[in-house]
Amino acid sequence: MNVGDKAPEILGLDENGREVKLSDYAGHKLVLYFYPKDNTSGCTAEACSLRDNFDALRAKGYEILGVSINTADSHRKFIEKYNLPFHLIADTDHKLTEEMGAWGEKSMYGRKYMGTFRTTFLIDENGVITDIIGPKQIKTKEHGTQLLALKD
After folding, report:
1. Which fold has domain 27-149?
2. What pLDDT sits at residue 29?
């Protein structure tokens, strides 16, 4: 996916097993953020930064939706543990993650494996991607304030 593309209509199932569609957010801007794994240090810092800036982001017209390949059960526990005020998509087959271009080969300590690239897509009220923030740009502990600092 690139800036200017329409995001997919079917986004997946949330932590409650409810189907989430792009049209559920019609009339709102959407922060669609992809992260590797629940309860890891970087992903927790990112989620908590978005939580801490949730009201300010909503005041700017944004809703937040997280996506990882973890299960719905893992997401429910993650949401409860950190009091996250937004839904998380359980993309266990990594269909959406692949479709959005946030899945690929990664490397850690010389070992190569397939995984999620930490990526945030900003989507306008009409479902069009207006900005993509890649893994090298995202500062997990400051991601919420990074988004607030972006020009509308």
Report:
1. Glutaredoxin (3.40.30)
2. 96
